[in-house]
Every structure is written in structure tokens, then in C-alpha cells.
Write a structure and sequence with these properties.
The protein is built from 9 helices and 22 strands. The chain is α+β, with helices and mostly antiparallel strands. It folds into 3 domains: about 90 residues, Nuclear Transport Factor 2, Chain: A; about 150 residues, Nuclear Transport Factor 2, Chain: A; about 110 residues, Glucose Permease (Domain IIA). Strand 12 and strand 13 form a beta hairpin.
Length: about 475
């Protein structure tokens, strides 16, 4: 049932609300139409850029907030800063005690020795690559006569004739602008000072304190051997020494695998407390494809310093497996190969090692040069007779080293340089290994082992190398334990 008395009131109330709504919409229609599509950026294609009232309002608010931040923040920072009280200092004059009668001050204190180097202004010159001492004298404005006097003053002038990049010479210029003195290092432990006095040259020497500091490093091969050495703290030069030590047993171009590891005991040279250069590898182990190799540095009774294994056998074989530092093997030993230039099948009786032109080629073993000259197809060609049965041959050289037919060469001696003379499509070394006149594959031929230390010397070898081998075993054990955790 519906209450008829309330119906007119409800209708009036509803009508009134609708009237108020329409009135409000009409009154504020202009405001809604302006703000419904408002944006910061006007349509520049339809009207020029102008600032509306709302733009001025918002811009003013932003400037006001920026100004307040610039005033309030520095004020707050200054208010919270605490300046400590200045520390008072008192200066006292203290009289030094008098020296005992008859005593004199040490002239070396505060200087570089009795020569008075501290008061003299030495001109230090570093040797650049390709420079000779003559070039340095000319650059410094000294005469060739000064250079000859310096060279003539030395019984053995090799330290002046064979200078190397990075080496330093010091010169002292006289009042007349001429050379008054020069200073250089004869060796790691000796400094030489030459003073020019008229026609005379006076020499003084100074002993330098040289020491070798021993270090231990361990690395695991991931990207490359050089990267593993860098992660272990080894320089590139020390990594090369490591590779050379094991180069007779491991072909680092082909045999290296991810996960191989090494431990090294090595030293570096310090002079007067400052590091001078890399030293030598004292002992090392290398695990390649699960097989462990050991190298220990030892100077035998004949005065040769070589790497030996734990049993006292030299790691150096009678022959190098690869007589050149190569980038890749471009052609292997084969009884039938299509010649890249001639175009027909022909036996390839050696191994081709691709390498940049000019790369040194080394003698694979001790022997005598039996041929040096041009050979059809091989270009510049060298053969070496090693013993009554074994001969090696080297082809396509760009040029020969300073060797002659009949000359004896030692293992590792440079006999020529990589090129592409003869029938060759690119720079490489063609290397042959012959036994009793028969060609053998240089990559697989069994190389004769080197002779071990004599029994009388083994006891001394073991006593000298035992401490280093024990350190290596300790490092290997620690690394194995860490790997297992």
C-alpha cells in the first residue's frame, strides 16, 4: 500500500533537485569546457604558443617551491653542522746537542752517496725502442768524441753497446755545456759513474742491493692460458716462461683444454727495495687433460740451467716439436693432397705452420747446416743434419738468419724467418722431419729423450729441489681440497 499523503512532497523534492542540477551545469559549463581537454602543450599546428592563466599559476608555484628549497636546505645544513674547537699548538725551540770533538757529519746522509749526487742535477734519459747510445748522445747535444771516450774507458763495453728499451742513462752537464759525467747500470747490482776531466775519464762503481722475492701462484684455464695467468697475478712474460718450460710435453696451441690448471713458484728481482723486473720460474706443475707434469729449475754440473722432472730427467727433448710460434696448422702431413697451386694430387711430406711474415724459425735440435739456399718449390730452404740418421728441413723462408753451410747450430737458435717464397699461397713454415732419408710426420714421430742426470749428481739435485717440490705439493693439495668443498 502506498502513502498518498507523501507523494506530492516526494515529487516536489525530486523536481527541485533536478532544477538545482541543471542550474549548476549551466553556471559552470564554461569552466568544464575549458578544463576537460586542458594540456600543458598547445597544438602548435593550429595556434601559436601562448601562456594561459593556469600556466602562469603552475609556473609561479614551481618557482616558489624552488626558492624555498634553496633557502631552507642550506640553512638547515648550517644549523646541523658542528665545528670543533680549534686544537691549540705550542711551538718550542729545542737546541740540538753538539757533536763530540773531532767527529764529522757523514757526507752520505741526505744525499746519494759520497759522490754528491744529491746536489748535482742529473739529466735522466730513458732508452726508446730502436735507439742506440749514439742516438741518445746526439739528441742530448754531446759529441761523438764523448761517446768514444766513454766506450774506450770500459774493458768490456757490452753494457753500453747492447742497450735495451726502458734502460736509463743519466748525464751531468758542465758549466761549459759539455758532458761532465754519465751514469748507467752495468748490471743489476752495479752502478757505474764516468766523470770526464779533460782528456781523462775517471770511473767509480757503486754496489746496488739486489734481492729475489719468491711468490706462489695457482691458476685454472678458462678462456686462455694468458687470461688464467692474469687472474693468478702473473705477467704475460711469466706466462710465456711457463709455456716454454712445458713446451716440450704440451702443445699449447692444440692440447690446452678448459679446466687445465697450474701451480707456479717464481721470483722477481728487487733493487734497493724497488721492483726491477720479472725473475724466473723456480718450479711448476701443469695438469693438462688430467695428466700432471712437473718442472724444476736446476743448474747442472756443466753449468747449464734447465728444467727437469722429479726424476732428474731434462724436460728439454732432443728436438722441438714445433720450431716456430704459429697461429694455426694450415696443412698436415699427408701421402695425398691436392696442391693448392699446381692443382693435382701430390704427397705433402711435412707440416705447414701458418705464421706472420718475419716470425723467427728455430732449429729443432743441435746439428750442422747442410744446405742453405733456393730450392724449387720450397723457396728459401735450410736443412740441418742432427746425427747419423735424423735430418730436419725448413722451407718458404722470407730470408735467412746469419747462418752458413757447415756451421753448427744449437737447439732453439734462429736460422731464418717465415715467408712465402717458392710455391706458397700465404706466409708459413713448411717443416719436414726425416729419419734415414724417410719422411716422418713431425706431429706424431717419437722424439728421442734427453739423457738424465748422472747418478752421481742425482743426490745433489734431489736435495736442492726437494723444498720447491714440497711447496708445490702443498699448493696442489690446498687447491684440491678447495675444489672438493
Amino acid at each position: 500500500m502506498t502513502d498518498s499523503n507523501n507523494t506530492p512532497h516526494s515529487a516536489r523534492h525530486k523536481t527541485r533537485r533536478l532544477a538545482i542540477r541543471r542550474h549548476t551545469q549551466r553556471k559552470h559549463f564554461h569552466f568544464y569546457s575549458r578544463w576537460s581537454n586542458w594540456t600543458f602543450m598547445q597544438n602548435v599546428t593550429t595556434s601559436p604558443i601562448t601562456w594561459r592563466a593556469e600556466h602562469w599559476i603552475l609556473g609561479g608555484v614551481a618557482l616558489l617551491l624552488t626558492a624555498l628549497a634553496g633557502i631552507v636546505i642550506p640553512t638547515w645544513a648550517n644549523a646541523t653542522r658542528h665545528d670543533g674547537e680549534p686544537t691549540p699548538y705550542t711551538t718550542l725551540a729545542i737546541e740540538l746537542p753538539q757533536l763530540p770533538p773531532g767527529s764529522e757529519a757523514d757526507p752520505a746522509i741526505g744525499g746519494y752517496g759520497a759522490q754528491g749526487d744529491a746536489a748535482e742535477e742529473w739529466r735522466i734519459v730513458g732508452v726508446r725502442a730502436g735507439q742506440s747510445l749514439s742516438d741518445i748522445f746526439r739528441e742530448q747535444g754531446f759529441s761523438a768524441n764523448d761517446l768514444h771516450r766513454a766506450l774506450d774507458s770500459q774493458d768490456d763495453a757490452s753494457s753500453l753497446r747492447r742497450i735495451r728499451p726502458g734502460q736509463e742513462f743519466a748525464f751531468l752537464v758542465g758549466a761549459d755545456g759539455g758532458l761532465a759525467a754519465m751514469r748507467f747500470e752495468r748490471d743489476d747490482a752495479t752502478r757505474v759513474v764516468l766523470r770526464f776531466d779533460g782528456s781523462d775519464v775517471n770511473e767509480t762503481t757503486e754496489d746496488r742491493a739486489v734481492e729475489r722475492r719468491t711468490h706462489i701462484a695457482h691458476g685454472i684455464v678458462t678462456r686462455s692460458l694468458f687470461y688464467a695467468g692474469e687472474q693468478a697475478g702473473l705477467s704475460d712474460a711469466m706466462v710465456l716462461k711457463l709455456a716454454n718450460a712445458f713446451g716440450y710435453d704440451i702443445d699449447f696451441a692444440q692440447d690446452l683444454r678448459e679446466g687445465d690448471s697450474f701451480s707456479v713458484v717464481y721470483d722477481d728481482v728487487y733493487r734497493d727495495g724497488e721492483r726491477l723486473r720479472d725473475g724466473d720460474i723456480i718450479a711448476a706443475t701443469f695438469i693438462n687433460q688430467g695428466k700432471r707434469y712437473t718442472a724444476v729449475r736446476y743448474t747442472n754440473a756443466a753449468g747449464e740451467t734447465l728444467f727437469y722432472n722429479e726424476a732428474g730427467r731434462p724436460l728439454r727433448k732432443s728436438f722441438l716439436r714445433t720450431p716456430v710460434e704459429f697461429t694455426r696448422i694450415s696443412s698436415v702431413f699427408s701421402t695425398g693432397r691436392q696442391h693448392p697451386i699446381l692443382g693435382y694430387m701430390r704427397a705433402h711430406k711435412g707440416v705447414d705452420y701458418a705464421a706472420p711474415t718475419g716470425t723467427p724459425i728455430r732449429a729443432a735440435g743441435n746439428g750442422k747446416i747442410t744446405f742453405r739456399g733456393w730450392s724449387s718449390g720450397y723457396g728459401n730452404f735450410v736443412t740441418i743434419q742432427h746425427n747419423s740418421t735424423i735430418t730436419t728441413a725448413y722451407g718458404h723462408m722470407s730470408r735467412f738468419a746469419n747462418v752458413k753451410v757447415g756451421q753448427n747450430v744449437s737447439q732453439g737458435q734462429t736460422i731464418g724467418y717465415v715467408g712465402m717464397t717458392g710455391l706458397a699461397t700465404g706466409p708459413h713454415l713448411h717443416y719436414e722431419f726425416r729419419v734415414s732419408g724417410q719422411h716422418r710426420n713431425p706431429l706424431t714421430v717419437t722424439l728421442p729423450p734427453a739423457e738424465p742426470l748422472p747418478a752421481a749428481e742425482l743426490a745433489q739435485f734431489r736435495s736442492k729441489t726437494a723444498p720447491m717440490l714440497a711447496r708445490l705439493k702443498t699448493v696442489d693439495s690446498l687447491q684440491f681440497a678447495r675444489a672438493g668443498n
